[in-house]
Specification:
single chain, alpha+beta
């Protein structure tokens, strides 16, 4: 069994500081990620938890000029990112909630993929890279252009690269914890 990191090894507020600096970047430089940077981001996805440890996520990394041109045919929201990660999950491999025990609205694969996307986004931020989740895409076009198997459900596109734009003016605006949290009952 691996040892848990203690508070001093992680930095008292290191993770919260990272989250405070991360933002949705909407302007990227043309410099491609290094293989090492991409490896760290993909490893963050690999280490992400999933329901029943089924690990249903499926990722397609797009970096070629031809591939990025195909992404541009599917969304107007690439923002010049040199790397796009198409995130999906295999519905046949994901855990499914029952009608009496589980989330009301979704397949666990959707949740599992969202966790992996969040971990990839935070790993990229830790490397000083920018990211942006994009849900505004044509799923039929993505399926066709990237040969997405029928069993896979598309979740999001993750744009990754070197940020050229600063966070927007509302980036630091956050509700107080008390505005969205109750105790013991809603």
């Amino acid at each position: 069994m691996s040892e848990l990191l203690n508070r001093d090894e992680c930095g008292k507020n290191g993770y919260l500081t990272l989250l405070g600096h991360r933002y949705s970047c909407r302007k990227f430089g043309a410099t491609q990620l290094t293989d090492e940077e991409l490896d760290v981001i993909l490893e963050a996805a690999r280490k992400s938890p999933s329901a029943c440890n089924n690990q249903p996520i499926r990722l397609c990394v797009v970096q070629s000029e031809e591939g990025l041109a195909k992404v541009d045919e599917c969304t107007k929201c690439r923002y010049g990112a040199p790397t796009v990660i198409i995130a999906a999950y295999d519905h046949d491999a994901s855990a499914h909630p029952s009608s009496t025990y589980g989330p009301e609205t979704c397949d666990f694969g959707d949740i599992d993929t969202s966790i992996a996307l969040t971990n990839m986004e935070n790993a990229a931020a830790g490397l000083g890279l920018g990211t942006c989740w994009v849900g505004a895409f044509d799923p039929s076009a993505v399926r066709e252009r990237f040969n997405v198997p029928e069993s896979c459900k598309l979740v999001e596109l993750l744009m990754v690269g070197h940020a050229l734009a600063a966070p927007g003016p509302r980036h630091a605006e956050r509700k107080a914890v008390e505005e969205f949290t109750t105790r013991e009952s809603f």
